[in-house]
Amino acid sequence: MIKTLDTAKRISLIGFKCDEGVRRNEGRVGAFEGPDFIRKHLCLENLKVSDLGDVICEENDFTPAHKCLQSKVYKELEAGNFPFVLGGGHDMSFSNFAAAAKYILKQKPNASIGAINIDPHFDIRDFDNGANSGTSFNEMAKFCVQQGLTYNYYCLGINKESNAEHLFQAANDLGVRYCCDDELNRASELIEECVENCDYIYFTLDMDAFKSTLAPGVSAQAKVGWDVETIMHFITIIKTSNKLIVADIAELNPRFDIDERTAKLAAEFTKFILS
Fold first, then answer.
1. Per DSSP, which regions of 18-112 are E strands?
2. Is 1's pLDDT higher than 60?
3. Looking at domain 11-274, which CATH architecture does it have?
């Protein structure tokens, strides 16, 4: 049986220092330093935590860095630990999901995995010309086809003005389950649906999802955004399912932060997810 997050498991922190995916997606670079600033404000007392350091992605090292991250996450799952990745751009999501899916397929081939992303952006752009921070969940779709898995992608908090019309069409074509940032009740329903339909859950929190007054230091600020209590409520539903297998936090950009408030918020939510 694959164990999920519980108080007895060791938490394995892995930093993913990468700006390249955001740069390729024409976003605001600066997420490279995200892991350092989260750690600066992170307090995980009374938890079994091992910090495994960082996977570092330079401009010409994009694919090798992602392969390294996927390998590290997979290794920690094999060891019976709970990997939590500190980003870094959202391009890391495919590596984290793929590691979890490969591990599950090896241990329990008939099990299903869902991906829940709290994010104002779909991140399902085409990647024919290469991956970036906006392609991860399209990469997941192709991966699921290759591996014979059902593509269970739930995206919560979509902002209508921040996603081109063709991305909504792509989401519909791929079967993405999503809600917009003015549909709070729908968000809870989708999480419950994922919990009911999937054996395991990969969860990612994009700091872009918060109101810009709460989180100015991100790669692409939300035009509406959600508050702390709302996102905590959604995460509580995910945690209490006991199906969480891998998680990460993405798009903290210290370069644009004010008084490190976004870094502090990212550290607060890291602790909340892991506690």
1. 49-56, 82-87
2. no
3. 3-Layer(aba) Sandwich (3.40)
